[in-house]
Design brief:
Largest sheet of chain A: 9 strands, mixed
Distance between the termini of chain A: 22 Å
Strand order of the largest sheet of chain B: 3-2-1-4-8-9-12
Distance between the termini of chain B: 18 Å
Oligomer: heterodimer
């Protein structure tokens, strides 16, 4: 047993950890990744002349004037929606409104959505394309120019008869809440805390959607926001078509999010010495790293980076087109041309986008990582954790037989030490794990309860830490006292609770990470970074002070929970869970918290 | 009496022999005449009618160019003389009435949209989902259901020249039909063999424009087939250009250059297939077109382009002086009998109508008429002679009886 892989296992584990973490660090490197390409043959992006003219720009300006008036008057939802509805009616496009009301933990969100349906002129509208804009931009300002673009597009697109799909124009109230209400009602999904009118004007099955976000006066770049709820991504062909069209037909450079290259270069030159900051490799690495980090932030928290993210649940491929504010050269004219050409491309589709990638990391506007290029980094670390857990499990089952005192004099040269199996009592560790999960469940219930949310503020969370320490020390004292003492019997004493608990903890964590990495890589990466080493080095200690010290150090791992769930009275993650159904909050309470608690209990136990 | 009788019989047999000789002379002349009718002086192809089977096997909007290929070939073939009744046009999808078409009801084959191929007077025989491998093979081999209308049948005979054109997506020894089935090179080869066995073509020209097109004709084994394809194995065929209002590619490279060449051909053109194949330029076409002529018995330098692409009606120039006789006859409305009796009495004296290269008979008569009248005249003559002899004998006996 002390030969071969058993001996090498610690080395293997260290090697795997280093490999996994360094692979993660290498993800933004310029050598990894490939250029984007169009996979669906039917799309044919950038092959059409656009006829969006300055007349259409003028009509957009006129609509913008009306919208600014509404904003200045602090118009109510009713006034805003009636204005929008009248615009659609004047154009001859059938329109309707939808009132909705969300009841979240602390408040009630209500509003009125307005939408119009341009039916396909020469064919039956079995499919639909959506052009959407929300009243509030993702920069939290008003999205007036985005809505003006939607209205003038409606006027322009109505003149053409070459649309093979219905076009639905939606102006959603609020930011995400309006679109959530509309989509749920359109697809017949009920939500318990939502009270929304049914959709009066139905169209076909929605295949693709574009959300327009244009907060500033002019723009220099068009940014692509693509993450959806729970880390889901749209088919890459939509973004790639948009990229090609914007670059070639519109003449507007494309960036990821609003990360303009020049900004990044200035940051690097401030923080790094001249020698390094001038290197092209470092510059490119820094740009890509910025994109990857922002992507991981959105995806790990399960947040949609824009209104488009709500569409992915229904297998609709959608992106948000963000006009990066600048004093730059482009305005309604460029945006209209780009959207028109993108619509012509989306019009060519004969079936849902299925050819290109659904799992990718966009490191730059024209480069991306394929699934197999980033997935192994998390899985390798989880494999290392699994090896650790199995090692502890095996160790727990064998004990070196101690010779009785009279035989010691003969020296070890005569006989090799004998290994004997011992019982592994599995029930108690499992009960402990279950208890931690129950604690997680209770935490989640408390944290999302409206009573709790409306009545507490930050300072009330502080006593939790010493309280829980006391609870844990009592728990561990109880648990340790239950264990039978080691005695020199022929029958070796059963395996210690700490080993078994650690083994289960590591194996469970590894399984969770592997499964999550396929669904939501960023969440798995977040687990790997935070839990990889701490869980592997958890060990039982003697002495109350050291136990407390260790427990405190593990409580640092609970900091992310505090930050995402409890930092503000109504944290974004809880709001996401209640309104949009994002799983991050329950995941953190019911999976992450128990894992950390199990490791803490291991540390609090006697060896 | 015996001498007289003998001499009369001799005279009679001589006359009969002469009549027979004249008849056989005439038959041989007829055969030569017919043979020369089927052979033109310069290109002895021997076909009497032309047929075309033009197939676009792929559907969907982004395959617009395949439909434009087939329609371009259809227009050219019609312009060069093959009538709609002799063309089977199979289009797997309707590009002209597609909802995405900015110019509804039209199909164009070039950037700038100069010529509408779907404009006037086109007849699509198999359309949409009717274009299947089964229907294509049934059309070729003639195994169509009894209810199939005439316009959907390939009514060729053993003197038809057939032009088969296929376009769509293809690969190594297959062509994709309708995005859900394929026809293989073996299937087409067997269909052509069936056509040969059933005498459904005299010569067949097979043209295909797909990726790896040359593999599609590699399995033929029937005689008199000339084949050409747009690209070699492991080679793609590329589209030529796109129109920026239609938004898709509108014509394939190979077909574009073929059609461009055929625009310079008209019905009376003497261009040969050798010239046609010499037009192939792999650099411009962006692939390597191939030709297969080992099954084809005539040398390519004597095969006219219009033998396959055109529908030539054979015309004979008539000797001008005969026109006057014809005119007179028609004007006077006279029956042919006085002329006929003249000819019958002195058959050797009637002038055979030769020398000017035309093979017409005396004006105003048909072959069958003359044969019949001659036959009856000969019989009548024999009858007359026999009657004369009998009468003479009776008279003689009667007179000899009275003399005693």
């Amino acid at each position: 047993m002390e030969r071969g892989i058993y001996r090498a296992l610690p080395v293997i584990r260290i090697f795997l950890f280093i490999l996994g973490y360094s692979w993660m660090l290498m993800l933004p490197s310029p050598q990894l990744g490939r250029g984007i390409y169009i996979d669906e043959n039917a799309l044919q992006p950038g092959q059409v002349n656009t006829y969006w003219s300055w007349d259409d720009v003028h009509s957009a300006d006129v609509y913008l004037g009306h919208l600014e008036q509404l904003r200045d008057q602090n118009a109510s939802s009713v006034e805003k929606s009636s204005f929008l509805r009248s615009v659609f009616s004047e154009l001859g496009i059938p329109a309707a409104t939808q009132a909705y009301s969300f009841k979240t933990g602390t408040m009630t969100l209500d509003g009125i959505n307005t939408y119009g349906v341009l039916s396909a002129p020469r064919t039956s509208g079995t499919e639909a394309i959506v052009i959407a804009a929300s009243w509030i931009s993702l920069t939290a300002g008003p999205n007036l120019r985005g809505i003006a673009t939607v209205l003038s597009l409606a006027a322009y697109l109505k003149r053409y008869s070459l649309w093979a799909k219905d076009i639905i124009f939606i102006v959603g109230d609020g930011y995400m809440d309006g679109m959530q209400a509309w989509l749920g009602a359109y697809h017949g999904l009920d939500q318990s805390n939502l009270d929304a009118e049914p959709i009066k004007l139905h169209s076909g099955v929605i295949w693709t959607a574009l959300a327009i976000d244009y907060p500033g006066h002019s723009f220099s770049h068009l940014g692509i926001f693509y993450e959806g709820l729970n880390g889901r991504l749209p088919n890459q062909d939509l973004m790639n078509s948009f990229h090609i069209i914007s670059t070639h037909t519109g003449g507007v450079p494309v960036v990821v999010y609003d990360h303009v290259e020049e900004q990044m270069d200035s940051i690097i030159s401030r923080w790094l010495p001249q020698l390094l900051s001038r290197q092209a490799y470092i510059k490119e690495y820094a740009r890509r790293a910025r994109n990857v980090i922002r992507h991981v932030r959105y995806q790990a928290l399960g947040r949609a980076s824009g209104v488009h993210g709500l569409f992915h649940r229904f297998r609709i491929d959608a992106i948000t087109v963000f006009a990066v504010p600048a004093t730059g050269p482009h305005g309604f004219h460029a945006l209209g041309r780009v959207i028109e050409s993108t619509l012509r491309t989306m019009n060519n589709l004969l079936e849902r986008l299925h050819a290109s990638f659904f799992f990718y990391v966009l490191t730059g506007p024209g480069t991306f990582l394929k699934f197999g290029q980033y997935l192994p980094s998390a899985v390798i670390v989880s494999v290392a954790m699994m090896f650790g857990g199995l090692r502890v499990w095996v160790d727990a089952g064998w004990v070196k037989q101690q010779w009785s005192s009279e035989k010691v004099n003969h020296g070890p040269a005569g006989k090799a030490p004998k290994w004997k199996t011992r019982r592994r009592n599995v029930i108690i560790p499992l009960v402990v794990m279950l208890a931690t999960h129950v604690v997680g469940g209770i935490t989640f219930f408390v944290v999302t309860n409206s009573w709790f949310l409306t009545r507490t503020d930050k300072t009330t969370y502080l006593p939790i830490i010493p309280l829980s320490l006391i609870v844990f020390s009592i728990l561990s004292a109880l648990l340790t006292s239950d264990q039978p003492t080691n005695s020199q019997h022929d029958e070796p004493s059963p395996a210690p609770l700490s080993s078994l608990l650690k083994a289960f903890n590591l194996c469970f964590a590894s399984t969770v990470i592997s499964i999550t990495s396929v669904l939501n890589f960023s969440l798995a990466a977040f687990l790997v970074i935070l839990l990889g080493i701490p869980l592997s080095i958890s060990s039982p200690t003697i002495g109350l002070t050291s136990k407390m010290a260790k427990a405190m150090s593990y409580f640092i791992l609970l900091f992310p929970i505090w930050w995402t769930l409890l930092a503000t009275p109504m944290s974004q993650s809880i709001w996401d869970w209640q309104v949009l159904g994002v799983w991050f909050a329950p995941f953190v309470c019911i999976v992450y918290l128990p894992l950390v608690l199990q490791a803490t209990v291991v540390c609090m136990l006697d060896p | 009496m015996n001498i007289t009788r003998c001499s009369r019989w001799l005279h009679f047999t001589l006359l009969v022999l002469l009549a027979l000789l004249r008849n056989s002379n005439q038959t041989q002349g007829q055969e030569q005449h017919v043979k020369n009718f089927f052979q033109r002086a310069d290109s002895p192809s021997g076909h009497t009618n032309n047929w075309a089977v033009l197939v676009c096997a792929s559907r969907y909007w982004f395959n617009y160019r395949h439909m434009a290929n087939a329609l371009g070939m259809y227009r050219t073939v019609k312009r060069l003389g093959i009538p709609d009744s002799n063309i089977i046009l199979m289009l797997a999808d309707d590009a002209a009435c597609n909802a995405r078409n900015m110019f509804p009801g039209s199909v164009y084959a070039n950037t700038g949209r100069q010529l509408d191929l779907y404009g006037d007077n086109i007849e699509v025989d198999y359309r949409g989902y009717e274009v299947t491998v089964e229907n294509f093979l049934r059309v070729l081999t003639g195994r169509v259901p009894l209810t199939q209308p005439r316009s959907k049948r390939l009514l060729t005979d053993d003197r038809s020249n057939v032009f088969v054109y296929l376009t769509g997506h293809g690969g190594n020894e297959f062509l994709k039909f309708q995005d859900n089935e394929e026809i293989s090179a073996f299937d087409i080869a067997d269909a052509f063999e069936q056509m040969w066995q059933k005498k459904r073509y005299k010569e067949l020209f097979f043209m295909v424009d797909t990726c790896q097109a040359n593999t599609l004709y590699s399995k033929f084994y029937s005689p008199n087939i000339l084949a050409t394809g747009s690209s070699e194995i492991d080679e793609n065929s590329y589209s030529h250009e796109a129109d920026f209002d239609i938004g898709v590619a509108v014509i394939d490279s190979y077909t574009h250059y073929v059609l461009q060449y055929l625009e310079g051909i008209n019905k009376t053109s003497k261009a040969t297939m050798e010239d046609f194949f010499a037009m192939y330029d792999p650099v411009r076409i962006q692939s390597h077109p191939g030709v297969r002529s080992d099954l084809f018995q005539r040398p390519l330098s004597s095969v006219l382009v219009t033998d396959f692409f055109g529908g030539m009606a054979d015309v004979d120039i008539v000797d001008s002086h005969l026109f006057h006789d014809l005119d007179d006859n028609i004007k006077l409305g006279s029956s042919p009998s006085p002329r006929l009796s003249n000819t019958n009495r002195d058959p050797s004296a009637s002038r055979p109508v030769e020398g000017t290269g035309s093979r017409l008979l005396p004006a105003g008569r048909s072959h069958a008429d003359v044969h019949q009248t001659r036959a009856w005249a000969g019989l009548g003559m024999v009858g007359l002679l026999a009657g004369f002899v009998l009468l003479q004998t009776k008279f003689r006996t009667a007179s000899s009886g009275r003399d005693r």
